[in-house]
Design goal:
32% helix, alpha/beta, 329 residues, TIM Barrel, 11 helices, 9-stranded mixed beta sheet, 3-stranded antiparallel beta sheet
Length: 329
């Protein structure tokens, strides 16, 4: 669970309950957790749900405590791909969940899909994209499958994703979603205008946020911290009244300014054109942004974002308040 804040405010401007499967909690318990958060009026409140655990009772309780955005972890519409990443859906569960979200009156929702799973074909991935579009999703998060150390997937190289296939599928998603009216606003996120996730945008703009739960990250005024990863150790520390923080990193002004540019480059906010070192290697990876004097990544540039990031030079004139980067017309 994470909360984001604007400068000088004690009440959170956004709340995101996710990372894990919060919808497995009894609806009353999840609602009680959310109702205990001090939120600003009009705050965006998102809860991640699995299709199978999305019920009328859960959605009713969430609406009553101010939740106004649901993020559904669909991952894939192909059963054999789901099995390859250790997931399964009851037939019809996704469609039923989205129907229930609409009936409950949520103003927006998101569908998460993953590409690069074992045995996934191009047609499987296109079916997942088209499935999300057909169900009317106003926001789609399309993530490349990432192999985390220590997981069952990490121990099975035969199920590891192919980099070239993932690149091709990202470009497929960008084209298909754009044609359907969902436009990229961050490398992995696409939305109809007005349906962007405010919580994630706050994080990319270096706003302060507080994370609760094992492995959760926080940021406050240039200090980044992270919690213990082990669930058991995290619970033990909380029960003993001790901080579960595992470590922190303090950014000086120069590093914070550079990070500001690195984060902005991942989004349609873009960066000042003269913040990038003149290098023929990035030709075709950037294009003019929507604001004068800025550039953004092209679709191919998004695939090579780390390479472009290495060519950012934070000059003194770019050391500014974060609000000057990211508030486009």
């Amino acid at each position: 669970m994470a909360l984001a804040y604007d400068d000088g405010l004690e009440a959170a401007t956004t709340l995101f309950v996710g990372g894990g499967t919060p919808s497995l909690l009894p609806p009353a318990e999840l609602a009680r957790l959310i109702s205990g958060v001090h939120l600003q009026e009009g705050a965006e409140v998102t809860v991640e749900c699995n299709p199978e655990t999305t019920s009328p009772e859960l959605l009713e309780q969430l609406r009553e405590v101010g939740v106004n955005r649901i993020s559904l972890g669909v991952q894939s519409f192909a059963p054999h791909v789901l099995e390859g990443i250790g997931r399964r859906h009851i037939p019809g569960a996704v469609e039923r969940a989205i129907e229930l979200v609409g009936q409950a009156g949520f103003p927006t929702f998101s569908v998460d899909i993953i590409y690069g799973g074992a045995h996934e074909r191009d047609e499987d991935w296109l079916a997942s994209i088209d499935g999300a579009i057909a169900l009317g999703a106003p926001h789609v998060s399309a993530y490349a499958l990432h192999v985390e150390p220590g997981t069952p997937l990490a121990k099975d190289p035969a199920r590891h994703p192919d980099d070239d296939a993932q690149a091709d599928r990202y470009l497929m998603a960008d084209e298909r979603l754009r044609d359907a009216g969902l436009f990229w606003y961050e490398i992995s996120n696409f939305a109809r205008p007005g349906h962007e996730c405010r919580h994630n945008v706050s994080c990319w703009r270096q706003c302060d946020y507080r994370g609760f739960g094992c492995a959760a990250h926080s940021h406050q005024a240039g200090t980044r911290s992270w919690n213990i990863r082990s669930v058991d150790r995290y619970v033990d520390m909380v029960e003993m009244g001790r901080s579960p923080c595992a470590g922190e990193s303090v950014l000086d002004e120069e590093r914070r300014a550079l990070e500001q540019l690195e984060l902005a480059l991942r989004t349609t906010d873009g960066v000042p054109v003269d913040s990038l070192v003149d290098d023929p290697a990035i030709e075709g990876l950037i294009e003019p942004g929507r604001r004068p004097g800025t550039v953004v990544l092209t679709p191919r540039g998004r695939l090579l974002a780390n390479e472009v990031t290495l060519r950012i030079a934070a000059r003194p004139e770019h050391v500014s308040h974060r609000a000057q980067i990211g508030h486009a017309e």
